[in-house]
Backbone:
């Protein structure tokens, strides 16, 4: 196996004047070629590579900023949604409490209204009974009066003469008219 330094030693044996030759030793020429290619790439490619990296960096930073803005907007919307949810929950609780108290109020109002209606119906019933009693009493009075009058007239007719009979009829008609005014 050849030593890596052999090609460099071999250069020392070459005549330095005017000859041009090809070195076919791969191990000796590869590092030189690679260093030249790398040097050219670094010199000319440094700007392009730097621009590519800067553009990539700017796109990444822009994406991060956009993501942060979107995250901030999403957090803001989340907070607004939470506030709305809390507000709606409070309103629902308030409606629930108000609804229960409203139901209780309506129930009490309905019970009170029913009691008042029953009381009014009882009063109407009592008034109707009293009215019917008074009407029945008045009818009985009128019949008793008419029967007593007919009985008295029958007795008078059999006992009286025509002149006394006419006087009694006139007196009874006058009394009957007075009674009719009082009861009517």
Residues:
């Amino acid at each position: 196996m050849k030593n890596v330094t052999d090609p460099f030693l071999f250069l020392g044996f070459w005549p330095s004047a005017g000859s041009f030759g090809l070195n076919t030793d791969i191990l000796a020429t590869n590092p030189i070629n690679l260093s030249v290619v790398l040097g050219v790439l670094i010199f000319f490619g440094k700007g392009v590579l730097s621009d590519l990296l800067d553009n990539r960096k700017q796109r990444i930073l822009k994406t991060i900023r956009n993501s942060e803005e979107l995250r901030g907007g999403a957090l803001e919307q989340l907070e607004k949604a939470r506030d709305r949810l809390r507000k709606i929950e409070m309103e629902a609780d308030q409606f629930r409490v108000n609804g229960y108290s409203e139901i209780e109020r309506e129930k009490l109002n309905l019970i009170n209204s029913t009691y008042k209606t029953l009381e009014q119906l009882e009063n109407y019933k009592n008034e109707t009974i009293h009215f019917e009693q008074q009407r029945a009493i008045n009818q009985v009075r009128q019949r008793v009066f008419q029967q007593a009058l007919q009985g008295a007239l029958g007795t008078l007719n059999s006992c009286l003469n025509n002149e006394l009979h006419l006087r009694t009829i006139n007196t009874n008609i006058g009394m009957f008219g007075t009674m009719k005014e009082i009861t009517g």
